[in-house]
Amino acid sequence: MGIPTTSNDDIVRLFCNSSVAELRWFIGAASAHFSSRASHHSGSSETQTIGKPNHAYLPAGLTLDLDERVVFFPDSSRQSTFEHDLASFFAGLSGLYLDFGMQNPVPKQCRIRCKNTALHVLDSVWRRVQEVPLSQVRCESISRQYQSIIKSLSPMSLGFASPSQAAVFPSAQMNTEKDALAVPPAEVITRSPIEPENGINTPPNSPGVTLVIPSAGRSSRFPGHKPKWLLTQPNGTLMVVDALSALDMTAVNRVVVGLLREHLDKYCHGMASSVIQAFADGHPRLRAIPLTIVIIEKETIDQVQTIEAILHHAKVSGPIFLKDCDNQFACKVYPTDGVATLKITPDLANLNIPGGKSYARVDPSGRITNIAEKEIISNTFCIGGYSFESADDMLGYVQNARAYQQKTNAFETELAVSDIIWLKILQQCVVGQQSATKSPFVSIPASGYEDWGTIGVFQEYQKTFKTLFVDIDGTLMKNAGQYFGNIWGVQPPLPKNVALLQKLHRTGRVQIILTTSRTEKFKHVTEKQLRAAGVPYDQIIFGMLHAQRIVINDYAKTNPYPSALAINLTRDADDLEAHLT
Question: 3.20.170.40, 3.90.550.10, 3.40.50.2300, 3.40.640.10: which CATH number matches 186-450?
C-alpha cells in the first residue's frame, strides 16, 4: 500500500482536481464509514465536548491514499459518538467552502471548483447516511452539534445574513433559484447575410449552432496595446476574425460577438460598421450567415457574465459554441455538450503558459470525466472552444453557480466556463449517480492549434510569417543581361536557392515578391523561365533600377524592431539558406 500523506492538502487536492470516479469513491467510502457507525450506535447522545470538534475527523486529521483508494478514518472511541464525529466531519469539510479552519488556503484558480465540490460531496454523504435510517432525534442532534462546531471553528463573522445560513447542510437545503446577477446593458446591431448562397447550408434536420465570441476582456496579457481582438494578423484580418478561419462552420447559422463599448469608442471611433466589415472580409461562410454585434456598456465581472450578457441581449437559444478570440484551431462545430481539447505532444513543448490553461481528463470513450481551471490534471488541455447543446441549459447552471458563489462568499473569484462545465458534470455524474462513462460532455477533436494569448507568443507567431523581396538575376538565376552574352531568360537556375524558396512557400506563411531590372518587354520570357525552374512567387516587379535597393518599413509594439532586414549575396552564390533562417 502506498504511503499516505498527512495534511489537509489531501482533501484540498481531491476537491480541486479529482475525477468523477475519484469523487464517487470518496463519497462511497465516507458514507459507508458513517453508515456503519450509525448502525452500531443506535442511540443519540451529545457529549461534554459539544462545540469542540473531533480533530481526527477534520481535514488535517484525515489522510488519503488515492492510488489504493483508501481513506484512513480514525478508530471509533468510547469518548466519541457517531453524531459528534459526523458533525465534525461535515464542519471540517465546510471549511473548504466557507474559507475557515484551514491550514493551507485553496489556490485562487481552483477555489470555485473546490467550494462547489465540497458542497455537493457533503450533500451526497448526508443523503446516503440518512438511508440507515436516522431518527429525527439523531438528525437534530447532528444539526445542533454541527452548528456549534461551525461557530467554534469560525469565531469571526462570515458575512452571512444569519448564523443559521452557514449552519444548514449544504446544497440539498440551499435555494439555487436566486435571481441571477443583473447583466450590464448593451446595444445590439445585426447584419443580415450578404451572400446567402455562399458557403455550405446547415444540414437538414440539424439545429443550427450559434457561434459566440466573447471579446470584452481587458487583455491584461497585452500591456500597453489595444485590445487583442483588434490586433492585425499577418494575413491582414483582425485577430477576432482570424480566430474563426479554421473552424468547420457548416452547422453554424449565426455568429454573435460581444465587445466593450469603451473599446469600440476608443479604438474604432465608435463605428461598429468597421467591425462588421472586418468579418465580411474573413471566412467566406461569415458572409452567408447573420452577424450580431453586442456592444456591452460597462465591464463585466468575469468572462461568464460577458457570455450571459451576449446570450441575453442577442436573444440566443438552442446550441451554442463559445470560441476564444485569441487562438485558432480546426474542429467541427456541431450541436453537443463538448470541449475542444488537444494533447500536449513534443511539437507543443513551447506551449504558452501551460499552467494558465484549463485541463481535462478524457476517458477511452471520448467523454470528459474531469476539467479544472489552471490545474494541470492531465496532458490534455482545453483550447478555447466550449459547446453547449442548449444555451438555456448552460444559463441554468450559471445561475446555480452564482448562487453557490453567494452561499460560499466567493464573489472575489472570477467564474470560468470550465467551472460551469464541472458543475454540470458534478451534478449529473456525482450527485445524480450516473456512471462516469455517461459524462454529459465529450471531447471535440481539434488540430492546427495556434496560440496568441500573450503579446510574447503572438509576436513569435508573427515571426513565422515573412515577405521576401528576391532579385532574379544573380540570386535565383545565374546572372544575365539585356544586350550582350547571356541574355535574360536563357541562364540556368541556382538550384539550392530555388529549393529553399519552394520549401518556404509551401508553409503558406511566406510571400515571395520577385524584383528585377528586366523590362516588361521580357515578361513572357521571364515567366516561362521561372516556371521551367519551378520558382514559386506571388508577384513580380519589373523595370527596377539597376542600382542599390533599400527597403523602408515602420516598426511599433505590434511589429517590433527590426521590421525589415536585408541580405546581400555574392553574385551567383547558391547559398541563400546560410543567410536566411
Answer: 3.90.550.10
